[in-house]
């Protein structure tokens, strides 16, 4: 019997959640549990899963109440502390992120991508026509199948990362001042800003490559693509300056000898 693939602890903390393209699916517990969850749903286990979920909620509530009773603290007082803490944390987070140039650049980039695809539908249909003509006329110097597959790949990359960049950056920046006193050597921290920022940087690098491919396929849109590339380049420089440890961060599996380099 073949060996069960080895799990890589914490690998999913620093990935781009593009499981479909991930070479580490068999090493990832998150992927496995999500697959299991979907299997259960398909097999009609929805009611059982919800039942389990509700039991867990009730159990947490009971434990919370027990702790409150033992400590002589009322549930209302604990609720109040909880609300106050959440509000304060959110306020601190908002003020930390306010004025972050890189986040503004990332959000602007995502909007620019939407605008590009909205305004250039005609170029896409023109390209399809061009490819069909090349196939019909057997133009020897064209390879429409290869060009179409490169375009599709670049399109998927751009679309997958366009919002993920700002999501990862926001998470990295809002945690950049945190320290983890209970960090165990060799173990990834639950949220590490350098690792999260590295994922954002990789998303930028891949988006840059994808836009370069796009520019080769749609030279008539060159100026707009140059603007997008310039935006990404600015964002990359800004992120590297803000989080200088990010590039060197070793993500479990992806950047170490537990798995091949990503
Ligand atoms: S590590 Fe890979 S399989 Fe696991 S959640 Fe991330 S992308 Fe998906």
Task: Give a short overview.
This protein has 262 residues and is mainly alpha-helical.
Number of separate helices? 8
Number of strands: 0
Our estimate of the beta-strand percent is under 5%
| Outline type | globular
Q: Which range best describes the helical content: under 10%, 10-25%, 25-40%, 40-55%, 55-70% or over 70%?
A: 55-70%
Mean pLDDT: 83
Count structural domains.
2
Describe it:
- The structure is a single chain.
- The radius of gyration is 24 Å and the shape is globular.
- It has two domains: 12-96, no CATH class; 100-242, no CATH class.
- It has helices at residues 29-42, 46-70, 75-97, 101-119, 121-136, 144-174, 193-217, 222-242.
- Residues 179-183 have low confidence and may be disordered.
- It contains eight helices and no strands.
- The chain is mainly alpha-helical and 262 residues long.
- The two termini are 28 Å apart.
- Iron/sulfur cluster binds at residues 11-12, 15, 17-19, 22, 24-25, 28, 30-31.
List the helices and strands and how they pair.
Layout lengths: L28 H14 L3 H25 L4 H23 L3 H19 L1 H16 L7 H31 L18 H25 L4 H21 L20
This protein binds iron/sulfur cluster.
């Amino acid at each position: 019997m073949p060996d069960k693939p080895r799990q890589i602890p914490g690998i999913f903390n620093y990935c781009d959640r593009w499981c479909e393209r991930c070479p580490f699916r068999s090493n990832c517990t998150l992927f496995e549990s999500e697959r299991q969850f979907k299997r259960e749903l398909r097999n009609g286990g929805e009611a059982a899963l919800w039942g389990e979920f509700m039991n867990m909620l009730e159990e947490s509530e009971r434990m919370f109440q027990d702790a409150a009773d033992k400590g002589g603290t009322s549930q209302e007082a604990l609720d109040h502390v909880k609300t106050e803490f959440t509000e304060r944390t959110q306020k601190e987070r908002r003020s930390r992120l306010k004025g972050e140039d890189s986040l503004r650049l990332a959000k602007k980039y995502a909007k620019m991508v939407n605008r590009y695809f909205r305004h250039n539908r005609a170029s896409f249909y023109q390209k399809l026509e061009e490819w069909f003509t090349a196939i019909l006329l057997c133009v020897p110097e064209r390879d429409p199948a290869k060009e179409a597959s490169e375009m599709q790949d670049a399109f998927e990359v751009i679309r997958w990362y366009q919002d993920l960049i700002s999501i990862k950056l926001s998470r990295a920046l809002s945690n950049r001042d945190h320290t983890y006193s209970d960090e165990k050597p060799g173990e990834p921290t639950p949220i590490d800003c350098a690792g999260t920022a590295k994922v954002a940087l990789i998303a930028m690098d891949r988006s840059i490559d994808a836009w370069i491919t796009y520019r080769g396929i749609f030279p008539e849109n060159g100026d707009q693509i140059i603007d997008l590339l310039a935006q990404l380049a600015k964002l990359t420089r800004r992120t590297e300056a803000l989080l200088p440890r990010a590039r060197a961060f070793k993500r479990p599996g992806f950047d170490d000898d537990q798995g091949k380099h990503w």
